[in-house]
Specification:
The chain has one domain. Helix content is 11%, strand content 22%. It has two helices and six strands, in the order E-E-H-E-E-E-H-E.
Length: 90
């Protein structure tokens, strides 16, 4: 097991990790390349609302995932919805 921040991931847990969070190797690339997932879970600075963005949406390219703020990657829209996130309206 490795401790990354406040989350613990077991070896061999797969792309979604033990708790459904995409894993990021220590010292490795943060993002879809590291997690194998392409849906960006972003937390709104102004409202705290949890919003996910899929490739091709208007603000997808400029959305940056910052795990220290509770943001994360999802491997499917169903995973994002099940975790309580909503799809971006634009």
């Amino acid at each position: 097991m490795r401790l990354i921040g406040l989350m613990v991931f077991a070896a061999g847990a797969g792309a979604a990790g033990v708790y459904g969070f995409a894993q990021t190797p220590v010292g490795g690339t943060v993002g879809a390349a590291a997690s194998g997932c392409s849906i960006k879970g972003n937390v709104s600075i102004s409202t705290g609302e949890r919003i996910y963005h899929v490739p091709g949406q208007m603000h997808y390219a400029e959305t940056v995932i910052s795990p220290q703020y509770g943001e994360r990657w999802f491997c499917s829209e169903a995973d994002a919805i099940a975790a309580g996130w909503r799809k971006s309206r634009v």
